[in-house]
Protein 1
Amino acid sequence: MKKILFLLSISLWLISCNQKPEKPIDNNKLSSEEKIDSTNIKTLFNSALTNGKSYEWLRDLTSNIGSRLSGSEGAAKSVIWGKNLMKEVGLDSVWLQPVMVPHWVRGEKEIATYTTNGVQKNVPICALGFSVATPKSGVLAEVIEVKSIEEAKTLGAKMEGKIVFFNRPFDDKLINTFKAYGGCVDQRVNGAAVCGEFGAKGVIVRSMTNSIDDYPHTGTMNYGNLAEEKYIPTAAISSRAANILSDDLKENPTLKFYFKQSCQTLPDAPSFNVVGEIKGSETPENIMVVGGHLDSWDLGDGAHDDGTGIVQSLEVAYLFKKNNIKPKNTLRVIFFMNEENGTRGAKKYAELAKLNKENHIGGLESDAGGHTPRGFSIDANSSNTKLLQSWKKLLSPYGLHDLDKGGSGADIGPLKDENVTLVGYRPDSQRYFDYHHTSIDTFDKVNKRELELGSASMASILYLMDKYLYSNSPVKP
Amino acid sequence: MKKILFLLSISLWLISCNQKPEKPIDNNKLSSEEKIDSTNIKTLFNSALTNGKSYEWLRDLTSNIGSRLSGSEGAAKSVIWGKNLMKEVGLDSVWLQPVMVPHWVRGEKEIATYTTNGVQKNVPICALGFSVATPKSGVLAEVIEVKSIEEAKTLGAKMEGKIVFFNRPFDDKLINTFKAYGGCVDQRVNGAAVCGEFGAKGVIVRSMTNSIDDYPHTGTMNYGNLAEEKYIPTAAISSRAANILSDDLKENPTLKFYFKQSCQTLPDAPSFNVVGEIKGSETPENIMVVGGHLDSWDLGDGAHDDGTGIVQSLEVAYLFKKNNIKPKNTLRVIFFMNEENGTRGAKKYAELAKLNKENHIGGLESDAGGHTPRGFSIDANSSNTKLLQSWKKLLSPYGLHDLDKGGSGADIGPLKDENVTLVGYRPDSQRYFDYHHTSIDTFDKVNKRELELGSASMASILYLMDKYLYSNSPVKP
C-alpha cells in the first residue's frame, strides 16, 4: 500500500512537471503569413538551442584572447579573430574598416589604503578610463564624501587639496538595473571634471553596481572642458569598501586616504571595425545591421560586455544561413571597435555610411549582457514602432514580452534617422552589474542556453524586420 | 572639438541608458481599487529590494546547516532553525507538525570506472535516492545503452547480467527546461524497476540536465512492484560521462563498467513540517498557504532546491508585517518536510487539514529555484483562473507575464479541490537544471535581487489572492 501511495505521488509529481506549459501559439489566431513566421521563428530557436555556435565562439574569444581594450594587443588580436570567424561562417563578404581609437593604458595595479583607529585598511580600487596617473608617490589627503555632482559643486573651494568621494548608490527599487546605472554613472563620468576645477587632489567613486562586494568597476570618464593642468586622478572603489569608508568617515572625518595609479593616455592607435554581410536577395541596396562591440575593458575577459553581443550577432547570420533563410535586404554583421571609451568605431561606421550614401533601414544591437531574454527596446518612428509591437504574439512564447519604446545602443545609435528602425536587445538585467567592467566579467558567468536563446531572439526579430520593414521601406526595388 | 564630440557621445549613451523603460503602469487604465493594488504591490517590491531578509536567511541556512536530506542531522537542525526564524519574524503562532519520513543514506562516496582501448576512465557517479547498495565488491558487467523505458522493456532477457544505461538526453528545443525534465525523468525513477524484473545487474542513468558537465545529479527512484529480492543498484552518471561512455560503447560494445555504492534505506525517522501563521483579520477560518520544502538532497546545500522557496515563503509574511498589510484570511507559511523522497510532509499536512476540517482557499508554492521571476502557473477552477489572469496588468511591470494554467507544486498539490486556488511560482528555468540535485546547488548560485524579486512577486499575488479570493470564497463571514 505504501508502495502504491508512493507511486501515486511520483506520478502526481511527474504530471505536475509536465503541466508546466510550453505555451504553444494558438495557430487559429494567426493569419497564414503569421503561421509561416511562427514556423520560421521556431526553426531559428530549435537551431540555436541544438546547433548553436555562440557559446564555443565566446569560450574561444574569452579564453584565448581575453580582454580587448582599444589600442591593446588583445583588441588587435580580436580583430583578426573576428574577421576569420566571419569568413568561416561563410558571409558573402568580410572586411575591416579602419578607425583611429583612443589608447589608454592602466599601468601597474593600483593601490589604495587608509588607517583609522590604528587599523590599516586596504581598498579594492581601479583607475577609471582616461584618468591621469597620480604622482609617483601617490595622493594622500583627507576625504569629503558627497552624494552627487550638485552637492560637489556646492562645496566649491572647500574641496581644495582634498579627495572627493562620490558615494551615491544604485537605487535598488528600480526593477531595471540599467535605469539605476543611468541614475548614478554621472558621478563616475563627470566627477573629476567638476572637482578638478576646484582644486581637489583626486576623486574616488563608488563602483557602479547593485551588489555589495569587493570588485572595483572601471569605466570611462572625461575631463570635459577642464584645463589640462587641472586634471586630477580618479578611480573606482568597491561597493563594500565604499560602505566601510563612509562609516569610518563618520567616526573619523579627518582620516587620510591614499591611492596610487600609473595609468596614461597614449597617442591614438589604429584599429578596425570588423564588418561582414549576406547580400540581400531582393533589395541588396537596403541594409540592416546587427552588432555588438569587440573591445572590452581590461580587467576581466569582456564576456558579458560585450563578448556575448558579438557572438550573438554573428550567430544571427549563421542561423539564417544554416536554415536557408535568405534576407531580402543586405544583412550586415558589425563588430564595432571602441564602444567603451570613445565609440569611435560607431561614429566611423555612420560617417562612412553617410559618405557612401548607403541606405540603412534597420539595426539591432546586443550590448546589455547575455542573460535570459526579456525583449527589445525600439527606437523608430511611430508606425514602425507599432509594426514591431504587433509581433508580440509571435515573440512572447519565447519569453520576449518587452517591446517598449526606448534607446537602441551606443554603436548603432549614430545611424538614427526618421526612417531607420533601431532596436536594442534587452535580456534580463538583474545580474549584469554584478560583473560589468570588473575582473569577474568572465566566461563562466555566461549560461549557454541563455546566450543561445538571445541569438535566436535576435535572429527572430531581424527575420521579421527584414520581411516587413522591407515592404515598408522608403526605397523600393 | 574632439572633447565636445566625446561629451556628446557620452550624453547620447547616458540618454540611451535612461531610456531603458521602467514601464510604469498607466494609471488612467486602472480602476480606483486597482490603483490601491498597484500602490501596495509597488510597496512590497520596494520593501523586498531594499530591506529584504531572504538572502541572509538563505546564507545562514546553506552555510551553517547545509544539506537536509530527510532523516539526516541537517534536516533535524533545519526544523529548529525554521521554527526559531518564524518566531523571530513575529508570526502569530508557530508549531511543528510531526511526520514520519523515509531515511535513506548514501554511505561512502560512490566509485565508477571502466577501461577501453587500454585507457581507464573514472566516471562521476552518485547513487539515486532509495537505491540499494551494490555488493561490497561492486558490480562489473557489460553495458546495454537504451534511450527509453519502452526500449528497455523490448530487451527482455537480453539484459540479464548486464548494466542497463539509460541515455535519453533533455530535449534542448523545449524553452521551459522543466518540460525537458518531465520528458526524461521516467528513466531515473522507473529504470531500475523495469530492468530488475529482467535480471539486469544494475542501472546507470544519464544525469537530468541540459548542461554538459561533470556533476552527477541524484534524485529519487522507486522499485515499484518489484519483488525485493530483485532490487538492483541504480545511479546517475554525469552528462559528459554519459556522452563519452556512449561513444566508447560504439567502438567497444563489450567494455565492462564497474560501479560500487553502499547506500541503504534505514527505518522511517521522526521529523516535522514547520508551520507558522498570521491570523486573518476578517475570516481567520479561511486559510491561504505559502511554502516550499525544507529538506534537500545531500550532495549540495539545497540552495535553489529548495532553500530559496523556504526563505521566499517566509519573506512573504515578513513583507506583509513590515508593510502593515493585514491579510483578511489566515496566511500560513509552511516549510514542508520530505518533498524530495516521499512528500510525506505534504501528505501529512493535507491529511490533518481534512481531519481538522480546515477551510483552505488558496496556496502558493515556490519550488522551481530562485531565478529571475517570470510568472505563475495556476491550478484552479475556471472562474478563479480567469480572476488571477486578470491581474496581469498589475504584475507584468515586474516581469511577471506568465499566468498560464498548469500544476502548482508537489507540496501543496494534495490540497487540490474544486474550490482551492493553487499557484506555483515560476521563475526563469534556464539555469535551474545546471544545479538541481548536485554538489553545486550552493548559495553562490543565487542572485540576491532575483531572490528578492521572487519574494515580492509571491507576496504580490498572495496579496491579491487574499483580497479577491476572499470575496469569492464559498465560506463567508
Note: Confidence is low (pLDDT under 50) at residues 1-21 of chain B.
Protein 2
Amino acid sequence: MITPWDVSEDVDYKKTMEKFGIRPFKDVLHKIEDPHYLMRRGVIFGHRDFENIIKSINEKKKFAVVSGMMPSGKMHFGHKMIVDQLIYYQRYNVKIYIPIADLEAYWARGMDFEKTKKLAIEEYITNYIALGLNLEDTDIYLQSKKDVVKDLSLKLAKRVNFSEMKGIYGFSGDTNIGHIFAPILQVADILHPQLEEKLPVLVPVGIDQDPHIRLTRDIAGRSKDFNFIPPSSTYHRFITGLLGGKMSSSKGDTAIFLSDKPSKSLKKKVMSCKTGGRETLEEQRKLGGIPEECVVYEFYVYHLIGDDKELKEIYNKCKSGELMCGACKKHCYEKIVEFLNDLSEKRESAREYAKEIVNNM
Amino acid sequence: MITPWDVSEDVDYKKTMEKFGIRPFKDVLHKIEDPHYLMRRGVIFGHRDFENIIKSINEKKKFAVVSGMMPSGKMHFGHKMIVDQLIYYQRYNVKIYIPIADLEAYWARGMDFEKTKKLAIEEYITNYIALGLNLEDTDIYLQSKKDVVKDLSLKLAKRVNFSEMKGIYGFSGDTNIGHIFAPILQVADILHPQLEEKLPVLVPVGIDQDPHIRLTRDIAGRSKDFNFIPPSSTYHRFITGLLGGKMSSSKGDTAIFLSDKPSKSLKKKVMSCKTGGRETLEEQRKLGGIPEECVVYEFYVYHLIGDDKELKEIYNKCKSGELMCGACKKHCYEKIVEFLNDLSEKRESAREYAKEIVNNM
C-alpha cells in the first residue's frame, strides 16, 4: 500500500481519479525540489493543475493556499495532515487563507455562531498554532464576518442552478436554502483571493472534497467577467482508524485526539490497534509482518517518523520477522506520548493567541 | 367597481382575500382619522394587521414602511400609486426604507449592477422625489451594499426549505441559486428595521406580492430568537391599462409613462383608450355612461382628482348622460398634461439629488 519509496495506488482511489480526471501526484513529484514527506510517501496521491503551484514555487512567485475548517468535535490525527501541509507551504512565498465555516455549520448542522467560534478558538486554531503554523500573515476569518466572500458568493450564486447542486450534493426538497447556498460560499472562499491579486490558488483536500473543487472550477470557468485562474488542488489519503476502518471523531476507539493525555486507556487504545502481524509469534518470525496492512506503520508514515531512513529500517525489521508487533506498538505509543506532551505544552501558549485572533475578527 | 363613496370588491380579489386570509380594508377604514383617497376609494382594498399601524398612528408612535423597487424599464402611472402611499405615510412618525433590488434584478433578470443603479437614479428615485417624497430621513439602499440585510438573509435562509420555495414561487431545477435565494433577501429587507428598534413594519403592495408577505410572516414566526413582529401589509388594486387589460411597461399602448411628453401621439393614446361609453351618442344620452368600466374614470379615481366632490360630479354627469366620452377624454388628457408638465419640471431639480443619494450609498 504505502511505502516511503514506492508510490502505489489503491484501486478505489485510482477509479475516482480516472472518473474525475484527477492526475497522479507522482507524475509531478520530481519537479518539486524539496517535497513534503506526505508527497514523497504517496499520502498525497493526486492533484489538479499542481503544475501552476510548482511554477510559482520554482520562480519564487506568490501563490495562495485556501484551507477551510468547520469546527465540529475534537481534532484527531486525521485532521493534523492538512495542517502539516499548510506548514510546509509556509516555507514558500505563500498567503494562506483559513475560512472558519461558521455559516455552513449553522446551515448544515444547526450550530450557533458563538459555539462554533468557541470551538474554533479552543480546539482548532489553538492546535494549528501549537502544531507550528504561523498565523501572523495568514488570513483566518469567520465566514459570517467576511463581507468580500459573502458578496462574491451572492454574485456567483447566479451561475449554478438547483439541478446541478442536487446532482453534486444530493439536496432534496427538505434541504434548507442556506444549506443549498453553502457550497457557493465555499466556492467564494476559494476564489476570493484572486479578487485582490491574480495568483494561483491551491486547495489541499481529502478526496471526499473533490466535488467542491469541481464545482469551484466549473463556476470559475463560467465567470469570464472575473477572469479567475481555476484553483489547483491536491488530494491526500485518509488515515486509517485504529481498528482498521475510518478514523472518526464520533468513535473514540478509532481515533487518537490531539488533546489526548498519556494514560493507561490511551496506551490500551494503541496496544489493541490493528496491525499487520501474523496469527502467532512463530509464524511472524518466519514470514515477517505485513506493514502495508498495519495501522501502527501507517502512523509512522503519516505522522511519527519524518526521516525516510528510520522508517525504512522499521519496515525492513518488520518484513524480516525481527520486529514483533508488541514491541512496535510500545514504540509507537512512546512516540505518540512524546508528540502529545510536546503539543500540550505548546497549546498552553497558543491558547491566548488563538483567542486574540478570533476576537479581533 | 370603484366609486369614491362605496367600497366594493371584484370577485377575483375577494377569492384571493378569502383563500389567504387578507382582510377587507373597509373594516378598518373608520379607525383612520385622515385616510388617503386611495383608502377612501377602495383602491387599497385589503390588509393584514393594519391595526398595528393604526395604533402607532393614533398614539403618535413610530412605525416603519418598507417598499422595495426593482428598476426595470420606465415608470408608469401604475408605479405612482405606491409612491403616493409613501408620501401619505410621511405625515406620520414614520421611517421609510426603500431597498433597490439590484441583487434580485441580477439573479432573476441578468441585469448588471451598474445598469440597475443608473436606472434607479434616472428613472425611479428622480421620479419619487419629483412626485413629492421626502428622501431626507428615508433609508434608500442598494441590496448589494446593505450588509445588515445580507447578513440577516443568510441567517434566515436556514428557516425555509426548497419545497416551500418551490411551492410559493414555482422554482424548478433550472432556477439559479441566486434566484432561489432572492425572496429571502426580500424577507430580510422587510424584517431588518426591527433589528435596530422593535417597531411595527408596514409593506404596501399589490396583491401579486402577497406570497412574499406570507413568506415573510412565516419566517418571522419561526424566528423566535429574533422576536419579530410579523409585518403588516396593505393591498392595492392594479390600474387598468389604456386598452382595458393590464398596464405594462413593455406594451407602450397600455401605459402612460411619467416621462411622457405632451404630444400628438400621447393625446391619441388617451383619446383612443377604453371607456364606459355606449355604442352611439344617442344611446349614451339616454342611458348614461358606465364609469365603473371606464379607464378614464379610473384615472380620475386613482390619480387625477383628489377631491371627492369633484369626482362625484363627473360620475353623476356621466351616469346621467350629460357628459360624453370625447369631452371627458379631452378633459382627462388636459389633466394628464398638467400633471406631466409639473412633474417634468420637478424632475429637473430632483435629478442631481437622486444621483447624490445613490452615489453616497
Note: The radius of gyration of chain A is 21 Å.
